[in-house]
Write a structure and sequence with these properties.
Distance between the termini: 68 Å
Structural class: mainly beta
Number of helices: 5
Mean pLDDT: 93
Radius of gyration: 28 Å
Low-confidence stretches: 1-21
Strand content: 35-45%
Shape: flat
Largest sheet: 10 strands, antiparallel
Length: about 575
């Protein structure tokens, strides 16, 4: 009895700890893998993606769909989200140890989840839904099959995107900290060293410009630079171009940590243990955004811009911005690791020389301070940047070009597309003498090489067209009077034995806005695969036997509408 009493009290203590603290450390969890196949990764946590850090790991599925997805621990479904892009079909499982596991780009859900989902989609008459089931309504045990892998959303090949989050804060945490193993015996690869002048007075080899230096591998984990003589002075930052490769996969993945030592002093270190979604767009300050846009590489800066609020930095002396004002020789070393501890080192030497003559640098344009509201007005255009829209101060530039082709306005060249923006800024363009019939079809679009790249959601306020953008570049106004197109993909009159019917929808300018379908006047569910421009109806028992009339209605962002009517037999 005394033993049972002690055991009872121990269980109460454990339950109390869970209740109060809510979460056990990653090393003390006992999660199982989300797939019953070897974990071969196509993407690592914190990897550099477009406008965001990768928030999980991408597990390869042998180029196929349909592998069972396993609940990594007991828990309940707390969220089901379906979108045409992004994560596609995604499932969120809340566990009793303070974590949430996320499974994305799925093909199908377990029967109970699928039934709940389709009921909600028909009730709301929407394909895209973000659902939060009642707590404990959909409960699964560790090892249960909860879904099947797929290629939905913005996925470019079949795989499982897998995340672990803090249940309370939704902070994403590196899944490989929880004991999941993906074989990795190779050190990261170092490609280039970058040295940056951080103000107009800094000099690097006689110039106020970035110096990019290729490196050479001298042993499996040691690198040296291909440059004999580096002389610099003033406020300087460093950066490095790196990637990692795991065993059994050719993908170039992200690294786990980078540190920079200068004259035997650690001045910079970051690691990819976790981050918050609210800070993920700061990736555009974390990397050399200019090099990304100009040269299609993504050097990681070892210094911080004034308006970079990332929390991943472990060590950051003087924000990594080093001021050299003496004549002496220096030694530096980069140490780059993957999460298995495989290490690559880059050693390089340079000289600082405060006797150097500062080059004359002429910066034209209006100074925009990153922490101020910045406004710009010119003929037919007005811009407003809210405080902290920029990562650093810029000398703003603007010019206007004559509009061509289908443009009904000039081309407004708003600064440089190589300068990143964190928060959207407003664009207001005045258009003279526009016919009333065209007024509601006018959209502000981004232009590259005299062609429309994409259009922004646009509205009229007084006599100006207004939109918001997170990208500098060239913008103009276009009239979109062309309705979307609808074409049959998999359809015939006799669909009595078919599992589905599908259609291709496209829009040439403003983009698809809404899509819906009716059979004999009743709404039916259409799955939208945005990357393949495909609408699919999977026959779900709601259409009975007999002859039917189908109507599909698709609109674009300026309400041009296309309708398609077809008869079929079920």
């Amino acid at each position: 009895m005394k033993y049972l009493y002690k055991l009872h009290m121990l269980l109460i203590s454990i339950l109390f700890c869970f209740t109060v603290f809510g979460q056990v450390p990653p090393s003390e969890t006992n999660f199982i893998a989300p797939l019953n196949i070897p974990l071969v990764l196509a993407g690592t946590f914190g990897e550099l993606r477009s406008n965001h850090f990768h928030s999980g790991i991408d597990i390869k599925t042998k180029g196929k769909e349909g592998f069972p997805v396993i609940a990594i621990e007991d828990g309940y479904v707390s969220r089901v989200k379906v979108t045409p892009g992004g994560y596609g079909r995604a499932l969120y499982l809340t566990h009793y140890n303070g974590y949430v596991s996320v499974y994305a780009h799925l093909k199908d859900f377990h029967t109970n989840i699928a039934s709940y989902l389709i009921d909600q989609q028909y009730s709301r008459q929407k394909f895209s839904v973000d659902l939060f089931p009642d707590k404990e309504a959909l409960v699964y045990e560790k090892g249960d099959t909860i879904a099947w892998t797929g290629n939905s959303g913005s996925s470019t090949a079949p795989h499982l995107h897998f995340e672990i989050r803090d249940a309370k804060t939704q902070k994403v945490i590196n899944p490989l900290l929880f004991g999941f193993k993906a074989k990795d015996t190779t050190s990261p690869t170092i490609k280039n060293l970058h040295i940056y002048p951080l103000d107009h007075q800094a000099i690097i080899n006689g110039m106020n410009d970035t110096l990019r230096i290729p490196v050479s591998k001298v042993t499996p984990n040691k690198y040296l630079i291909n440059h004999d003589n580096i002389i610099l002075d003033g406020l300087i930052g460093f950066g490095i171009d790196v990637y990692d490769q795991l065993d059994n996969a050719p993908n170039k993945n992200g690294v786990y940590s980078i540190e920079l030592n200068l004259d035997s002093t650690l001045i910079y270190k970051h690691d990819m243990d976790g981050f918050y979604f609210s800070e993920t767009r700061y990736i555009n300050s974390f990397i050399d955004y200019h090099a990304k846009k100009k040269y299609a590489i993504k050097p990681q800066k070892s210094f911080k811009d004034p308006n970079n609020k990332l929390s991943i930095y472990d060590t950051l002396i003087n924000d990594g911005r080093i001021f050299f004002n003496s004549i002496e020789n220096h030694q530096a070393e980069y140490i780059v690791k993957d999460i298995e501890g495989n290490t690559a080192r880059l050693n390089f030497n340079f000289k600082s020389d405060s006797s150097l003559e500062v080059p004359s640098v002429y910066k034209q344009g209006e100074l925009f301070m990153y922490n101020n509201e910045n406004k710009f007005h010119d003929k037919n255009i007005s811009l407003i940047l809210q405080p902290n829209s920029l990562y650093d101060n810029i000398n703003f530039s603007y010019k206007v070009l004559k509009g061509q082709n289908n443009l009904i306005s000039d081309i407004h060249c708003i600064h440089h597309e190589e300068t990143p923006i964190h928060t959207a800024y407003s664009i207001a363009i005045a258009v003279d003498s526009l016919e009333v019939s065209h007024r509601n079809k006018a959209v502000i679009c981004m232009i590259q090489k005299e062609s429309v790249v994409y259009c922004l959601p646009t509205k009229w306020i007084d006599d100006t067209l207004r939109a918001e953008s997170r990208t500098f570049g060239q913008y103009g106004v276009v009239i979109d009077s062309i309705a979307p197109s609808i074409k049959t993909k998999s359809f015939s009159y006799d669909l009595s034995v078919a599992n589905s019917m599908s259609f291709i929808i496209e829009d040439t300018l403003s983009g698809i806005n809404t899509y819906k379908a009716f059979v004999d006047g009743d709404w039916i569910l259409l799955d939208y695969d945005a990357k393949n421009k495909k609408l699919t109806h999977y026959f779900d028992g709601k259409i009975k036997s007999g002859q039917h009339e189908l109507e599909i209605i698709v609109t674009d962002m300026v309400k041009n509408e296309k309708r398609l009517k077809l008869k079929f037999v079920r």
